[in-house]
Amino acid sequence: MKKINVEEIKNKERFQNIKYLTKEEVKTALDFVITKIDENMEYFGEDKFPSASSINGVYDKKINKDWTNGFWTGMLWLAYEYTGKEKYKNLAEKHVVNFKQRLDDRIVLEHHDLGFLYSLSTVAAYKLTGDEFAKKVSIEATEYLIRRYQEKGGFIQAWGPLGEEKSYRLIIDCLLNIPLLYWTSEETGDKKYYDMAYTHYKSTINNIIREDASTYHTYYFNPETGNPVKGVTRQGYSDESCWARGQAWGVYGLPLTYKYTKDQDALNLYPALTNYFLNRLPKDLICYWDLIFTDKDNQVRDSSSAAIAACGIFEMNKYYEGPDKEIYLKAAHGMLRELINNYTTKDEKSSNGVLMHSVYAYVDNLGIDECSTWGDYFYMEALIRLVKDWNLYW
Ligand code: GLY
């Protein structure tokens, strides 16, 4: 692959001086998340889910038809693991049936986000309870997802009609969808899913990462030849800027592929992408929604990117043994402490979200400076990782 620059981490002292979160800080933060989950279980009931992002801090009730519904179910599974209380498991198990129904009825499944949906619902169910039905549904979801695999270019097409030129692209977010394929290979013994996931990952890292270690959001391929064409944004500020959540998906996507494949490039690229991310954090360590912005630009932050990046750092910390290992860990603790202290809804009684100040799609005027279901989920996942040796749902 092309040579990717690894920036030195700038201003290292600001990370070096961070103290690790104490068990007490983490427990208090998790207990707050649990109170929100308890309230929301009543509000959403058995078959409704929070909208992707909030409006004025409040999630609406929706049926299971968005790419984001798995995050609520994933939080229920995390709550079950954290508290041991059956009520979380009972509701999450009802969701498993709901996710099976969604698959059977083909409800808004013509996109690549089946990994987000099924890893956090049915795969989690199987891993935690051994439920064979949940395992079967997960494998069915994988089968549905691989219909989007394009031999020409070697990638899973994110959106749009299959093979259509203006939709013939991969997106960096999909690094979180391919663990469903790796997992299915492990469970079935059929390597074809692994091969598709791994080829998709290679097509991603070979194209979507710029030489300076920033990332494009999406990358087009030629449907006739499979040749790479160009990088284009969908949710970032511009084609040549670096959408913060895209970079965060990269920071977490690399360790997820490393976990399953032990691919050396994933390990080597991790400091490149992570340093680029860390070097563009404002003083409070919570990034603006696009990394092009600085304090002078008067832009909103995307707290969800901080939570995602923290999960990525915690995961890669299991494998990475480079000189900045401790800096990364402290950076993740620092970001998480800032989220705990200044980004949750603990003083916003009218909100039913957990983490404020997330941005869904600025360019679409969607979920700007709001709670997001993935922000809440990854915040909780990051916290759970600090209280137990957490077995990933991914
Ligand atoms: N995967 C869509 C997003 O990050 O907004």
TrEMBL record:
InterPro entries: 6-hairpin_glycosidase_sf, 6hp_glycosidase-like_sf, Glyco_hydro_88, UG_Glycosaminoglycan_Hydrolase. It holds the Pfam family Glyco_hydro_88. The active site is at D113 (nucleophile), D173 (proton donor). Gene3D superfamilies: 1.50.10.10. It comes from the Bacteria. Keywords: Hydrolase. GO terms for biological process: polysaccharide catabolic process. One of its GO terms (molecular function) is chondroitin hydrolase activity. Substrate binds at D113, D173, G231, T233, R245, W249. Belongs to the glycosyl hydrolase 88 family. This is Unsaturated chondroitin disaccharide hydrolase. It comes from Clostridium cavendishii DSM 21758. The lineage of its organism: Bacteria, Bacillati, Bacillota, Clostridia, Eubacteriales.
